[in-house]
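Case study B.
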Amino acid sequence: MDAYRSMLLTAQPHSIVVLHACAHNPTGCDPTREQWAEIGRIMKERQLFPLFDAAYLGFNSGSVDEDAYAIRLFVNELEMEAAVAVSFAKNMGLYGERVGCTFLVTKTAEIAGNCESVMERLQRSEVSNPPAFGAKIASLILDDDKLTEMWYADLRTMCSRIRQMREALYRLLVENGAPGEWSHVVNQSGMFSFLGLPYDIVIKLRERYHIYMADNSRISLAGLNTSNVEYVAKAITESLQASEPATKGPAVTAML
Ligand SMILES: Cc1ncc(COP(=O)(O)O)c(C=O)c1O
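Model:
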C-alpha cells in the first residue's frame, strides 16, 4: 500500500490509473474498503482518472453487486468520472466469444455524447464489427430476470468451488509439511493464487509433474478439482523438499 500510495501521490494529474475492480490478477490481493476509500480520495484530489478493469465480478464474494463495491464508491459516493471495462469471459464462461462492455461515466450529457462519438470511431478503426454471438448470450441472460437469477446462482456455485479448492490446497500443503508458510493461499481471493514459488520450482513442476502455471507461480484455482488437488499439493511439497535450502518455501512478500 505504501508503494501504491506514493505512485498515486506522484502521478501526473489527469493520468489514467488502471484499477482491478475485484479479484486482482495475478496477486489475488484486493484493497480493503478502507484502502479503496483512501485510493479514491487521493485520486479525486489529484485529478487522476480511474479505469476499472472488471473481469471477475462475482468471483470474490459470489455477488456481482458486492464485487462492484469500488466502482460504486468512486462513481456514486466520490462522484468521479470513470471508465469501466467489464468482461463476461470468465463470469459467464464465454472466454472465446470476446464479450464485455465498456461504460464511461461522465459528468454531463454533452461529455457523454462526445465520448460516444470517439468510441464509435475507435471501434470502427480497431475492430470494425465486434463478434456478436457472446454479446447476444449475455444480453439474453441480463434481459431476463429468471435467467439473471440462474446466472447469479451459478456464480455463487463457481465462487464457492474456487474457495473450496483454495482451502483444500492450503490444508494439503500444510498437512504434507510443504516447506514455508502458506497462509497467503487462503488470504488471497478470486480466481487466482499467487503461490510465491521460485522459478526453478515452477519449471520442475512443469517438466517433472506436468503441472503448468505462469512463470511467476500464479495459478488459476479454477484448474483444481477434487481429483487433482492432492497431486498438485504433493508435487509442490516434493519439489520444495528436494530443492536447495536457498530456494525453499514461498517468497510472496519479495515477489509482490
Ligand atoms: C484483469 C483482467 N482483465 C481482462 C482480462 C481479459 O478479458 P477479456 O477476455 O474479456 O478480454 C483478463 C484475463 O483474461 C484479466 O485478468
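Residues 145-176 form the longest helix (32 residues). The remaining cases will be described in the next quarterly update.
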